[in-house]
Every structure is written in C-alpha cells, then in structure tokens.
Amino acid sequence: MKSFLLSLGIFFLVLPCTSYAQTTVSKGWQAFLKNDRQSAKTEFTEALKNPEQKKEALLGLTLLYANDTYLGNSFTCFKQFVQEEKNAAPYIFSLWFSGLLNSDDPATNQEIIRFLQQLASDPSSDGTLRAMAWSRLGKAYSDSKKREEAIKAFSKIGAIENWAITGEFENISTCGFDKSYQTLKNAGPDASFVNKFGASVKWFAPPYQRRDKWFDFTYYFNFENSVVFSQTFVNSPKKQEVELRAGVSGSMKVWVNDKLIISESEERNNDLDSYIQKITLNEGYNRILVQVGESYAGRSNFLLRLTDQQGNPVAGLTSQSSSQAYSPAEPYKNEKVESAYEKFFEDKLKASPDDPLNQILLAKIYLQADKTFEARHVLDKLKASYPGSTAVNILFMELFSKTDNRTGLESTREAIKMADPGHPWALNFFYNSALEKDDYKQAEEYTDKLEALYGKDDGQVLLKRINLAGKNKNQPELVRLAEYGYSRYPQDKSFIEYKYLIERDLRKNNKAVISLLREYLKDHDDYDIAKALAKTYFDSGNADAGIKVYLAEIENDPVGVGIYTALSNIYAQLQNYSKAEEMLRKAIAIAPYIPAYHTDLARLLNSQGKKDAAIAEYKSALDLYPNSYLAIRELRKLEGKKDVFDYFKPYDVQAMIKAAPAASSYPDDNALVLNESTQVVIYPGGGSEERHTMLTKILNSTGIEGWKEYAAGVKNWQNYIIEDAEVIKANGSKVPAEVNQTQMVFTNLEVGDCIFVRYKLFNYSQGQLANKFWDSFYFSHGAPSLRTEYSVLAAKNQPLYYKFSQQDIEVQKSDADEFVLYSWAKENQPSLKYEDKMPAMDDVANVFNVTTIPDWSFISNWYNDWASAKAKPAYEVKEAVNSILPAKDRISDTEKAERIYNYITSNITYSSVPFRQGGLIPQNPSAVLNTRIGDCKDVSTLFVSMAREAGLNAQLVLVNTKDAGVKGMVLPSINFNHCIVKVNTDGADRYLELTSNYLPFSTLSGNELNSAILDIDGKQDVKAIKYLDPQTRKANNIERKTTISIDQQDLVIKEKNYRVAAPAAYLREAYVNLSENDRRKQMQEALGKSFQSAELSRLSFRNLANSGARDTLYTEIDYRIRDDVKKVGGLNIFSLPWTDKAAAGDFTLSFPRKFPLDLSQLYYFDSETETITLQIPAGKKLIENLTPMKISNEFMDYSLSMKQNANAITYTRTVKLKQTNIPADQVQAFQEFYKRIITVDNKQLAFR
C-alpha cells in the first residue's frame, strides 16, 4: 500500500513533545472503555506527541469519535493513521463498516470519496480492499445518479456474471442444505426439477441483475425458507490455479466442475471474499454451480470472484449462462485460504492477549464476516475486563442483532442506560422509552440533553423536536421546525418528506411538491421519492408525466421487478390493458416462477376477454402454488365449473329448526345439536379448504351458559372466513353475534333459540405438508345430535385414508365430475354422559380420523427435517456444555446426560405454547439459553444440541399425552401435543421429560406413561406409534415406615417415608420454596384432610433441595391424632391410619357402565408400601385384629400382612398397579375387588 499511503499527502500539526510518563495511550484506553470520554480524548490527544504511541492514539480517537461524533471527526483521525502506518490494510478492513466511511458532512464525504478512489486505483493495494473500494464507490455514484461512473466502478470489482438460475426448493429450518435436488447432475437447458410446491422448473437466465454485481435471488423467487441455485460456465484460456472468492447472504455451497469447493451451512450475511478456496480451472469451459439457502438470514444473494493470490481478478476469463460442455474436475487438493486480516489480529492477540484495541478490531472483523461464534468469544473476554463499557456493549448490540437475540439486545440496551446514561446511545434509548410511555415531557428532556451535545441545529435533534411537536399536536411548531430543518438540510430525505407533507396536505400545493421532489431526484436515486412524485402527477391529472417517472425508474433499475408490477397496476387503472399486460410479462420474464404474477396476468387477460390465455395463466399459477384458492375459484369460473361446495348436500337451516323436537324430548340435556357438519375439498394439487357448520337449539338456562360463546377451530396454518354467526329466534328473526376474530358471543340468547355458525378454513401448511390434509371429527360428544355429518370432496387421483376410533360408519361414495365425494353421517345420537374417572374424550367418543399422509415415517421425516437442524450447537450451547462437562471430568455417558438434564431443568423455565395450534419449529437453542424460557420442543431441542456437543446420541420424540387420549393417533397426522427426548447412553434408551424443574432424571409422570409417541431420529425405516413406558425409567414408588403408640385416646405417630421419581418431584415442588413455617402449615393442612384432629409436632425433609441427586426425597413427620381411639363398652376401638387407605368415595360407579375406568386418575405411583408398627399399651391385649389378605387381578396387586413381636405388631400394606385402564365390562368385577380392599383398610382394631 506504499504508493497509496504516500499519495495521501496530508499535513498534520503535531504539538511539541512533553513528558509522557503520566499521559500514555494505555490511560486513554482505560478511560475510553470505562466511559470517561473526555479523559479518553485528552489522553489520546496527549499521546499523539509520542511517536511510539501516535498511531495507536489515532486509532483510539478514531474509535472514540465513531460513536461520539460530537467529540471529533473519526475519518480525519483514521486517514492520518493510514498515512502513518505502513501496513494499514488490516485496520482499513477491520473498520470498513464501523461508520467512519459515512458522514453527514458534505466536505468529509468528498474526502472519503477521494480516499476510496486512491485505495481502489492503487495496484499495490490488496485485491479484496480494492474490490470493496470499487463497490463502495459504485454505490456512492449510484446513489447520486452518476450512472456511468457507477457502472464503471462496479465493473472493476471483478465479479463473475451471466448466471442461469433455478428454484425454489424447500429449506424450512435449514432442512434443504444437504439435500440433493439433481441440479449438480443436470446442467442442460432441458433439465427439469421439482420445486418445493411440486412444480416443474428449469434453468433460466434472468435478463437483468443488480448493478452492484451481487446476484440477488430476492428479485427472481419467493426466497424465504428456500434453497436456490445458480450456474455459469467460465471459459479459461489455459489450465490454471486461481482463487475462488465468495460472499453471501445465506448458507452456501459451490461446486467447480462438479467438485464441491465450498460448503458453509451457517447462514451468514457477509461481504465479498469472505470464503476463499484455491481451485483449478480447466482449459476451456468450467461449470460453476452455486447453492444458496435461506431460512433465517433474511436475504439471499452472493458475489463470486476468480482472482490471483493477491485478490486481483484473473485476466482473460469470460462467462456465459448457457450450458456448455465441460470436463469434470480431476482429483486435486481442495485448499481453504484463511483470511489474512483475521490472522493478523489473531496473531497480535496471541502475543498480547489482553490488548483491548486488537480485541475490538478482531471482533469487528468477525462481525463483518458474520462469524458470530468467534466474535462472541472475543467480546465475552473483553466484557469480563470492562463490564460497563459502552463501546463494548455497542459491539454486543451488533452481535445480538446479527443473531436475532432480542433478549440480549434488550438487556444490553438497559445496561448502556444504567452504566452510561449520558451517552448519545443511552439518551436515544431513553427518548424512545419515553415515547412508548407517551411521556412527551420526559422525551423532550432527553432531546435537550442531546442538543447540549450536538447543538440545536443537529439534524437528529431537529427530527426529534418535529416528532414531539406532532405528538403534542402542535402543528405550527411542527411546520416551523420542518421548514427550518429543510432549509438547513435540503438534501436530507427525512426533511424532504416533511416538506413534501406540508406542501401536499397543508398548502395543497402540488406544483411545489413536484418542484421539491424533482429537485431532490436530480442527485438522489430514491424509488420511494420517485413514487411520491409519480403519485403527485397522477393526482394533478398528468398521467403521462407519472408514467414517465416509473419508466425512468425501470431504466435506472431494470431488475426491479416490483416497478413493473406497480406500473402494470397503474396502466390497468387507466384502462390501458395492453401496456399493463406488457409490464406484467416483463416482470414474468425476470421472475417466471412467482405465482402471484401469473395470477395478476390471468385477471388482466380475463378483463380483456382473453379467456383461453387467462385460463393458461391461472393454471401456471396453480402449478407453481397449488394453495392459491383465489386462482382455483377464478379458474373454475372461467372453465364453467360449478362451485365446489355445490357438490355437497344443501343445508336448509329453517327446515331443520322447524322440525326440531321440543325440550321435553331431552329432559336430561341442556342443548340439542340439530346439525353439525364438516365439508372438505381436496384439490388435485393437494390444497384443501373446509366449511364447518353448527346449528344448535338451546333447551334450558344451563344451555345458555354453555353455548353463549363459540370459537371457530382455526389452526396456526389456516386462514378463515366467518360466513354466519347468529341467533335465530323462534319467530325466525336473527340477531348477529358479536365476532372478534375467531371468537363469537351470542347476545340476547334465550331458551328455545338456535345458534347458527358457519365458517370456512383455508389450509396453508408449509414444506412437505403443503399438499397434505389431516383432520379428526367427533361423531359423538357431550350434547345429543339429530344429524352429524363429515364429507370429503377429493380429487380422483388423491388417496384418502380414514378410520373411526370406536364404531365404523359406512361411507357413501360417488363420483362428482373430477372429484370423488365421500360422506359419513349419523343420526339421532344421544349425548355422552360423564362417568367417574372415565378416560379422555378422544378415548370414549366416536372420533373420525381422515388423512392424505401415507404413513408415520412421513411424519417422522418431516419433523426431523424441520427440527433437527435447530439442534446444531451454537456458541451459547458450547459454553454451557463446557461449564458442566469440563474436559478433566471422566464420567459415563449416562452421567453426562444427567448433568445436561439437570442444567436445563434448573435453568430454563417452561412456558407452554400449544403444540397443535402452531409453533411447530423449535427455537434456536442459543435463544432458549439467552431467554431462559421455552416450551417442550424448545427445551428438548436444547438437550439434543447439548448432548450432541457432548458426543451423545440424542433425538426428539413427539408425544400425544394420555390425557389427550391414547386412541387419538390411529392415522398419520401432526396432532401431537408434547415433545420429549430419547437419549442412548451406556447401551440403553432413556426418555427424558424436560418441562418440569423438579422431575428427576430418567423419570416420567403418570400423565405421560402409556402416551402415544413417535421417534424423530432421521432414520429411513418404518415408523409406527409406540406407547411410552420404558424399562429404563425410574419407578414411581413410595415407601412409608410408621410407628404408632397409644396415649389414652390419642394415636401418637412417627412416620418416615421416602418417595422415588415422580412422587418425589410432586412433593418437592409443593414444599421446596416455602419457609419452615409455611411448610409446617401446609403439612398440617394436608394431614387435616385425612385426619381432622391431627396435630403436627415435627416435620423434616432430607434431599428437598432442587439440585444434585433428586431421585429420592425423604420425609419425617411426627403428629398426634386426638381422640381417635373410641371407647365402646370395655373395648378401645380404632383403625390403622393408612396414608392412602381405600375408601368408598374413591369411585362413584353406576351400572351398566359405558366407558372404561382410568386408575391413573386416583393413583400417581407404580407401587406403594406402608409399614406400620403398632405398640400395644402395657397391660393391654388386642382382642380384634386385622386378617392378612393378598389379592390380585390383571390391574392391581394388593397385600396386607402382619407380624407380631412381643407388644408390637408390624403391618405391611402394599399396592402395586399393573394396568390403569379397566374396560367397561370389567369395572363391576373390579368394584367387588376394590370393596375387599376398602374393608381391610378400614377394619377396626380393638384392645382392652
């Protein structure tokens, strides 16, 4: 860079030397990083006098002024540093995006342009820096309407051009990165691929691309959650080694002559030359294939260069988008070239690890490359030394913004406000917070403080005052300030917009508006302002001038596809349909695979009477996006086909109401469903829509309470239209419901009224589910029904799977043009009456299940695609694993898994988001660690991520919990409501529930046992629903050992018990966070529920703390049951105080019973053993004793034994559950079995 540095030719004044002993550059850094900016400026300025410290002091002032522009000019200091430093390139690169190359000051901007011109033109400068300089110059020229200069500057970047592209392919949750879409094997013009909606797509060469040479897929595709491809054929005059350099927004793969050169799965937004690889070009044509993926990057683009080792474009290369013959690469070493600038500062830090300057500059380079893990590592170390530094916190805000860490952003914002309240960033934060609270007075106070720093004429200060004038509805002051601001900053867009609004809305002066905007657009490339100018022309009746503005914008930015569609709409409004069509066809030429453009063109063609052409365009739109229900409807109309819902049986509401029976026919019910129906249409492309109808008659006042509100069952992936929601009175009059989104409230509802609801649903599932349908429908429920019906109108080529959970209903099936109509109906069904401890509704109702999903393997693979990539360990995950699994610890895999489990359940709070209604994709584990909150799939994915980092084999498991019904998963669907983890350690599979902060490792609660589960393991094997009850789980057991002595009429009890697994968790959760007094109070209340006269005297816990080994919780309780021994004649009578003694009230049974009995609603353990040792009072003799009993059936084992030793008798009672679901036809037998237990548990003993 020598010639460039010498050419700067800038004279700087340096003061005479003085003593440097007290004022060194290190003091400047300490002051800077401790937010003492004035002292930092003083120390750095003083250090300029020392030749050995001058360069570092200049960098210090550069960084100081970058965030505190009121203190000085950052660029001026940096330019002087470049003049002084022989190897300035690493520093230029590091500070490229720090803001010093941008300025609101026109004079400084001109200096920056000259700096960039000299840098770009210096042949000895590094090629990457020269390309970056040309890029920055090109943008500056382009922004100022210097088009020819911009074109020349951009051309000197040396970017490879002339690409053919295809897409878009599925990439939800980055699932598409490693998939093959056959693009590598098929380069020819006739190659055809299947996109993410099942459409056939080919290679096409866009007619235009961005002028700045970044190839931007956002112009050509719906890029979100998509993988897209580009290919070009580079002709090399000889075989040669070159460097392939790439920058990207998104993930990236690059192949050269079919050899994979770059593979970066992390989605980054970086700059040119961020990835560098040495490659070999063959003589002749070389195929370069680029894959870019987006799921969270927010953008999708790349820039690729072929250079020599200095980063200068290789001469003599040409490229073209059309397919050319090429030779596959011969084997050669694929060598990655590391960033010289990263290495420069990494080496400096190795030599001086605590140097804050080099830490900052290296962090900036990492952030520029979007290497957030590496940047976080450097910044964490810097923050540990300077925890309150605003300069460091600003770097953290950039980091958190890149990683979408909103919690980190907010906490850092608050940290700046607390540690450095006078900093401009803090003052802006305070100002915004005041506005959010509508505290305009306080906002004005913060504006005053900013004005004290920057002056009253500062543009940002003026804009804040204008905003406050608007908030305070002070229009005269707003106008005065806006006019003044415009006079001070006539080239500032913000003031232009205020001036525009004043002239347009207040003064109604379109002539002034046109003059204002035209003047601004002379030197500024601004599409928003151009649109405002065009609109002003249209509003003034000068359509030709408005159109000319749009045509000029197209000439200026021919790739701007949105300009064509906007102009097409304008032509259509002017009824110039031929021009409107021309503009749309140009948009389609740029982006042929965006379905909305074809739909718009179809409507335009139809309005011109071009029916056949319109039909073709609607079909094209539906090929590209089968779920365009608007296109489906319009196409059917054009083809003369009837509305799809006309195929279903007509619905006569009034006739149904008129025929409804009186309330006396249903004396035990509160409401009568006259008709409930669901009508589903599944189109040939897989899209589906539904119509749901409910007509219910209110029979009594309880029915009013139960039916006064109704909610449409809309899922997260559905749109809806509420067609009808009304009360129909007995006289036929109607009262519309109050409707708020999906909620309906029926006012003025009376006995005898009917409510009528009808709504449509449109399914917009994503990814592999986009063309799939699944549903479940209750053919029986809590109200009686005259008619219940479910119908499906499915395309003839669509396989349909259906099954009832209880009782089959015969399908009525018929052809209906291009569809098949399926219908299931049931009439005169009684209500389902509640029975004590009956299973979940899904297990007792007759539920109809229907799906187009072929099997459970499809569901498993689908969710593995969506969720597995989220488990990739990020910085926070790696740090967390390192903290709990130090390398020095030699422990088993099971111990590793337990440590990870304990870490998550101790540090992450569970927050429930209904899995079924949406939120299907887990959060990034780093976000969960930062926010310390997550739902089931979030904490489970965090465990999988940490386990993988620890070298463990872990996977997700989808669960439909038992309380939702074990019969709910009879056909493939996504109707799971929970997510857990399976981890294989030491040869055994362990299932882990991570949503409880109290549940011990490898433990499952009773609600989860026997739940339906599906493995999500990525294996391509046959999957099936299994039921959760692993052998490796810890048994949910309770053991009690009690001694009882008799003190006159009182029982004096000393109990020691321990609970294992889930019972330990329940008790720990109830007591661990209470004070000693509150624990005693709560235990006393618990005892009182079993024994009214119980008095607690002592309570102690062991292992109550929610940390360490939580498997077992020990409790000791001493209490007295007063007056429990009753005297009858000469006998003393009492019964043993079994803790969980059987009682007649445990079950309320009547027969005949219709539904099974669920024992898990009474028992929350696998087994319970209680041993009571009874001390017989001296001189007393037991007259009446218990009779030992041991009974068993297929559901439960019960035993009671006793053993006498001197004056003590030991009784042992054991209950063991074997199955919890008792079929209805065996409930009566179980009742007789249970009565025997009740008798033994409650038998009275007598002594005298």
From TrEMBL:
<feature type="signal peptide">
    <location>
        <begin position="1"/>
        <end position="21"/>
    </location>
</feature>
<feature type="repeat" description="TPR">
    <location>
        <begin position="131"/>
        <end position="164"/>
    </location>
</feature>
<keyword id="KW-0677">Repeat</keyword>
<dbReference type="Pfam" id="PF01841">
    <property type="entry name" value="Transglut_core"/>
</dbReference>
<keyword id="KW-0802">TPR repeat</keyword>
<dbReference type="Pfam" id="PF12969">
    <property type="entry name" value="DUF3857"/>
</dbReference>
<feature type="domain" description="DUF3857">
    <location>
        <begin position="741"/>
        <end position="831"/>
    </location>
</feature>
<feature type="repeat" description="TPR">
    <location>
        <begin position="561"/>
        <end position="594"/>
    </location>
</feature>
<dbReference type="InterPro" id="IPR051012">
    <property type="entry name" value="CellSynth/LPSAsmb/PSIAsmb"/>
</dbReference>
<protein>
    <recommendedName>
        <fullName>Peptide-N(4)-(N-acetyl-beta-glucosaminyl)asparagine amidase</fullName>
    </recommendedName>
</protein>
<feature type="domain" description="Transglutaminase-like">
    <location>
        <begin position="892"/>
        <end position="972"/>
    </location>
</feature>
<dbReference type="InterPro" id="IPR024618">
    <property type="entry name" value="DUF3857"/>
</dbReference>
<dbReference type="InterPro" id="IPR019734">
    <property type="entry name" value="TPR_rpt"/>
</dbReference>
<dbReference type="InterPro" id="IPR011990">
    <property type="entry name" value="TPR-like_helical_dom_sf"/>
</dbReference>
<dbReference type="InterPro" id="IPR038765">
    <property type="entry name" value="Papain-like_cys_pep_sf"/>
</dbReference>
<keyword id="KW-0732">Signal</keyword>
<feature type="repeat" description="TPR">
    <location>
        <begin position="595"/>
        <end position="628"/>
    </location>
</feature>
<dbReference type="Pfam" id="PF13174">
    <property type="entry name" value="TPR_6"/>
</dbReference>
<dbReference type="Pfam" id="PF13432">
    <property type="entry name" value="TPR_16"/>
</dbReference>
<dbReference type="InterPro" id="IPR002931">
    <property type="entry name" value="Transglutaminase-like"/>
</dbReference>
<dbReference type="Pfam" id="PF13181">
    <property type="entry name" value="TPR_8"/>
</dbReference>
